[in-house]
Design brief:
It is a single chain. This protein is 26% helix and 22% strand. By secondary structure, it is an alpha+beta fold. The protein has two domains: 287 residues, 3-Layer(bba) Sandwich (FAD/NAD(P)-binding domain); 177 residues, Cholesterol Oxidase, domain 2 (2-Layer Sandwich). Strands 7, 16, 17, 18, 19, 22, 25 and 26 form an eight-stranded antiparallel sheet that branches. The two termini are 35 Å apart. Its EC number is 1.1.99.1.
Length: 535
């Protein structure tokens, strides 16, 4: 028997496995559907584009056709490997605005305000600039920033100030608004995934067992309590039982899928796919939220974009340099600067985020534009459109139906439209005079609101941040309580991005790691005031 069975060795699961197994009296089994993180492109920061092209460690998800985006079906990359999406993402470390977490608390989630969660962000982090009021200096997760900014990144930062926005030296500190440098989850030129930072140091513990290539097929529920997990490995169905708890950490797609496969969810839906409803919980798979993005692509008049780094000879030189020094162009993912702005001055916090990309590409990096250029990615910080993740059958190998319902809200379209207008103003500043070429997309002829809206619906894509499908709360659609326990069932928690009641206004990896840190502390300190322990 095992005390805790964790399903999913991703951004949250690796954190949980480390923190729980740190107590030698606690036994932990960690199940992961993917394999070991041995692919060299995982660890090389610039290798994430190759991972995207190959799909080697990806679930291969597709959304249903999106009716508000001209019927397009969206590719949804998610990591299927130790480390999960932290092993394949762009290594962006941004936490979100304080009002995101205060909003969670105001929705009835006591203990999840910004002041409550900040200690867990700090506990996780080892910031290369050292511990301060907002950052940790000795946590497992290493965060760094580039020391020499690319000329185009410098132009972006200068142009933001010229356009009237603040220069922000740290978007993870007291204020998010403005243009500033990006922190990345990188350590000594290597991707700092949760598999590397949390799981690897714990693998030698005798009380931790990691089982890869293990696809969870259902949670075993007996007498209103989760007592184990059934999984398929090498064509065989096996069972691991849990004395204490089963913890789902599969993320916004896999966690609701597994609950539904286990008979937990909306009864009518479960019966429609041939599954007996064990526990009626209508919110499972609802409340899906994702950051939706578009971009402006502009030609650069000087041959200095990152396109030059992809020439065969330069790639070879960079790989040799990286092998010898862990430095050079491939030691960083290529995003150095960001921007956060308000589309309306009366807003409490920015509702538009820009990632400044120093190359032009399409189709998630699988299609490069053979012109020197740059493209700020523009995304809606607080999307109003919500969708669903619903299983189609009782077969665990069949992907669920993913419907993010992109741009159903006209407000999301408006924010992207305003984001394009603001971005054009920034790119029109003096700082870009030496680099500004033709606007490739949307193109100079796309000027009216109707034209921009049409471009948005044709070009919008995921920013890879699905959350919310097992949301925390007290309303009828909530799946877990503030202790992340599934409502109405004993011995079962969900601890991952799916518990977010509302989307955070940032890339979601940092927040997911925080959730896992806080969730682990809840488990280890059950019956005590765990919050005081990290205050």
């Amino acid at each position: 028997m095992t005390d805790y069975v964790i399903v999913g060795a991703g951004s949250a699961g690796c954190v949980l496995a480390n923190r729980l197994s740190a107590d030698p009296s606690i036994s932990v089994v960690l199940l992961e559907a993917g394999g070991r993180d041995r692919n060299p492109f995982i660890h090389m920061p610039a290798g994430y584009r190759q991972l995207m092209i190959s799909g080697a460690v990806d679930w291969g998800y597709q959304t249903v056709p999106q009716k508000h985006c001209y019927g397009r079906s969206f590719h949804w990359p998610r990591g299927k490997v130790l480390g999960g999406s932290s092993s394949v993402n762009g290594m962006v470390y941004i936490r979100g605005h304080a009002s995101d977490y205060d909003g969670w608390a105001q929705m009835g989630n006591r203990g999840w305000s910004y002041s409550d969660v900040l200690p867990y962000f700090k506990r996780a982090e080892s910031w290369e600039l050292g511990e301060d009021e907002f950052h940790g200096g000795s946590g497992p997760l290493h965060t760094t920033r580039v020391h020499e900014f690319h000329p185009l990144a410098r132009a972006w930062l200068e142009a933001g100030v010229q356009a009237g926005y603040p220069r922000n030296p740290d978007v993870n500190a007291s204020s998010q608004e403005g243009f500033g440098p990006l922190d990345s989850t990188i350590k000594n030129g290597r991707r700092a995934s949760t598999a590397y930072c949390y799981l690897k140091p714990a693998l030698a513990r005798p009380n931790l067992k990691v089982i890869t290539r293990a696809l969870a097929s259902r949670v075993i529920i007996e007498g209103g309590r989760a007592v184990g997990v059934e999984y398929v490995r090498n064509g065989r169905t096996e069972v691991v039982r849990a004395d204490a708890e089963v913890i789902l950490a599969g993320g916004a797609i896999n966690s609701p899928q597994l609950l539904q496969l286990s008979g937990v969810g909306d009864g009518d839906h479960l019966r429609s796919v041939g599954i007996r409803a064990v526990h009626e919980l209508p919110g499972v798979g609802q409340n899906l939220s994702d950051h939706v993005a578009t971009e402006i692509q502009q030609q650069c008049t000087q041959p200095i974009s990152l396109l030059r780094e992809l020439k065969p000879l330069n790639v070879a030189k960079s790989l040799v340099r990286y092998a010898l020094t862990r430095g050079g162009p491939v030691a960083h993912p290529g995003i150095q600067a960001v921007g956060f702005v308000k589309s309306r001055p009366e807003l409490v916090a920015p509702d538009i985020q820009y990632h400044f990309i120093m190359i032009m590409y399409g189709e998630h990096g699988r299609k490069l534009h053979e012109l020197h250029g740059y493209q700020p990615l523009i995304n809606v910080q607080r999307p109003e459109s919500v969708g669903t993740v619903l299983i189609r059958s009782s077969d665990p190998t069949r992907h669920p139906e993913i419907d993010p319902n992109y741009l159903a809200s006209e407000e999301d379209v408006r924010v992207l439209r305003d984001g394009i207008k603001i971005c054009r103003d920034v790119l029109g500043q003096k700082a870009f005079d030496s680099y500004r070429g033709a606007e490739i997309s949307p193109g100079r002829d796309v000027r009216t609101d109707a034209q921009i809206d049409d471009y948005v619906r044709h070009s919008a894509h995921t920013q890879y941040h699905p959350v919310g499908t097992c949301k925390m709360g007290v309303d009828s659609k909530a799946v877990v309580d503030t202790n992340l326990k599934v409502h109405g069932l004993a011995g079962l928690r969900v601890i991952d991005a799916s518990i977010m009641p509302k989307m955070v206004s940032a890339n979601t990896n940092a927040a997911t790691i925080m959730i896992a840190e806080k969730g682990a502390d809840m488990i280890l300190r059950q019956g005590t005031d765990y919050a005081e322990s990290v205050a």
